[in-house]
Amino acid sequence: MLSWLRRFPNDVMHRNKSTAGSGRRTSSSTSWRNKSNSFTARIIRCASSVAAAGRRHSGGDEDEDCGGLPSSPPPPPPPPPPSLAAAAASSSSSSSDYNNSSSSNTVTVSARAFSFRELADAAGNFRQDNLIGEGGFGRVYKARLPRGTGDDDDLALAAVKQLDRNGAQGNSEFVVEVLMLSMLHHPNLVNLLGYCADGDQRLLVYEYMPLGSLEDHLLLPSAAASSSPPITSSSTGIPWRTRMKIAHGAARGLEYLHDRAVIYRDLKSSNILLDHDYSPRLSDFGLAKLLPVPRAAADDDSSSSSASSSGGSKVMGTYGYCAPEYLRTGKLSLKSDVYSFGVLLLELVTGRRAIDVSRPDGEQSLVGWAAPLFAHPSRLHELVDPRLVMAMQPPPPAELKQAVGVASMCLQEHHAVRPVMTDVVMALSAISDS
């Protein structure tokens, strides 16, 4: 097992009290740096060209991700629906730091372009009884799409996310998500089936996840719960081994993104969707951030955070999951995702929300409540979700210690001493496979 995990929990408090540079630095995977013509380079060229086009049109301050895009892509002549691929290609003539070595910036968007009428029909005109989720971005509806044969009996289930035109997710996030999910493919990432950019309508079509989100099963509904009833699991909640399986799958999804120089930036329980067997899928990539390709080969002793930090501006994400250095400076790195994963892992262990204002003072922040217990092995059982204990299914002490050890290292205040996701995947595989 990893050396940093063996030393847990005796050195956790020592690390927290030591100076920022005293912890062991961990180098991130640099395989993406050596692939100038790789998948990463292509998506960076496309995203940067879209951003440059947006800045030309807007003339104002650009968003941190891909700039202020036009209110909608230039509409093509009917009958074909608007094509994001065409919109991206039309803006590729702009100058960009990433375009100098490429003869073509055209990116193939694998997702199907739907018309608004097609998706409205598939989702039953967005009736309330088809509503399966709701958030700051808009609403998600269950839909039935033809598989391609045209037969009414041959329908495939899908989830259609209709973005609120006045919501938190704007046009730039919509473009980023379509581009990202058109090129990122992994068993632990949600599949994008299609999109709609009809007029001012913005819709995304995903594969249908029958068990909803992890938040629906793991966390108790908040006082401000949505009008749609949450999916509920058994009274004992999710079993321990299943929780660790979900953690391992989410870690693998993050590892895949980081290997391709993508910062997810919005890891949280509501963005993890569950298949019928509780296999997790990361979803909602509107805030994802592409790291710039280094201009020169990185030094061997450079840390992942110094090599991957991007200039800070507007902090975006979900309060309670954001890394402290990101909140302070606005600078983003791969280790920001690692911190968010630590919060998620604590949620899986405790069954508590990252932020819960209904709890007493001192317990409203999950990390603030749990961190003092990390250095006391005899008190780790206090972190366990009471539903597991009441069902006589508490985690084995060794597995609990290992899971909490991983969470504590991910939650280190100084980003340089947090592990990389490859190490996290390795550490969790022993629990999820046992």
Features:
434 residues, alpha+beta, Transferase(Phosphotransferase), domain 1, Phosphorylase Kinase, domain 1, two-stranded antiparallel sheet, 10 strands
Distance between the ends: 14 Å
Structural class: alpha+beta
Spatial strand order of the main sheet: 1-5-6-4-3-2
What oligomeric state best describes the polypeptide chains here? single chain
Strand content is: 5-15%
CATH architecture tag of the largest domain? Orthogonal Bundle
**Into how many domains do the coordinates divide?**
2
Q: Percent helix among the residues?
A: 25-40%
Number of strands: 10
Question: What are the segments in which pLDDT stays under 50 over at least 5 consecutive residues?
Answer: 9-105, 222-235, 296-309
Globular, elongated, flat, extended or rod-shaped: what is the shape?
Answer: globular
Query: What is the CATH T-level topology of the largest domain?
Result: Transferase(Phosphotransferase), domain 1
Number of helices: 15
- Largest sheet at a glance? 6 strands, mixed
